[in-house]
Specification:
Layout (H helix, E strand, L loop, with lengths): L11 E2 L13 H49 L3 H34 L2 E2 H4 L21 H23 L4 H10 L6 H16 L3 H24 L7 H10 L2 H41 L7 H7 L2 H9 L2 H10 L2 H14 L6 H42 L1
Parallel strand pairs: 1-2
Helix pairs in contact: 1-2, 4-6, 5-8, 6-7, 6-9, 7-9, 11-12
Length: 389
Amino acid sequence: MSTINYSKWDHIEISDDEDDTHPNIDTPSLFRWRHQARVERMEEQKKKKETFVNEKQSYQQKVAEMKKKLKEAEEKSASEEFAKLKIQLSELEKQEEDFKRKEEELKREERLTPLNIDTICKEGKSKTLINKSAPPPKELTEDEKIEKQQAFTKKYKSEIRKFGMLQKWDDSKSYLTEHNYLVCEETANYLVIWCIDLEVEEKHDLMKHVSHQCIVMQFILELAKSLKTDPRSCVGAFFSRIKLGEKQYSSAFNEELDAFRSRIQARAKARIEEAMKEYEEEERQKRLGPGGLDPVEVMESLPESLQKCFESQDIALLQQTVSEMPQEEAAYHIQRCIDSGLWVPGGAEDKSAEDKSAEGKQGEEAEAASAAPEEKAEKQEDKADGTAV
């Protein structure tokens, strides 16, 4: 059986211990002074620990940002910048030993601090449950990601847009603290798409405003990844750092914001070009002739002499021009004109047939009209005969 270590009870700091008081000293005042001194030491130790934790988090963030820049420089093949960043990263990593040493000192101080009435008093009964580590989240397919994004946007679109329109740091912090379910990748994705839409619509000033909020969200998510924690717990940490005005952190934020806006402008331009190409292709499909050729393209590819014939719509000149061309070349161009609809075979004959048909119809109508009075007269005669009978 394991033995219980009672050594921690050997040195207990008691502010109202009467064994070491002097008869000439005011005992209640001495007790109050001791208690106040102990509370101040505990508060000082607590602040010291909080300062260390904040410095360590700031250091870890700097290392993460430096590694990110180093990776980007390596991908861009910027050798000079890569070497410079590598030196800066090595200098930062040297500070890790200092943080380990300070952490050991803090632990040692806590271990050697005597127990007192404030640290001894604890709840009478406690229970600790150790849960099994949660399995890593399942990797979603592209369709599942799209479906998840659409469902999230449909549910929280108005809240996301309201966050995108905020201006002050404090307002953004309060809003995300109150609506912490918005601190996620889906919100960042929607803000990116919204920025592209605004740039396409040429609402440049509004795009710049929303892009600022988008980078705020992305920085919070990146901070959570570097600390391996829930993004919702990093809202306060991000705004505390950005409001302190730390030059390196603020510079990194502004640089990323400028780069993001440039990417948005490039993507909007590409989207407009794609839309124009789709429109032109639709118009081209509408123009295609019976053989699947574009009359505009065929017209531009014809020899200048043939182009003049089609522009003037002079059939006689077209026949003459074709007869003067080599047979194979003429056949090639005429066939392409037929496939594109520029030339309709038998068009003149069909028109003549239509004209003849129209003339025949008019003749029949005239003949019927001339016959109508005769029939009318015969009917009148019959009527007269009948009356006479």
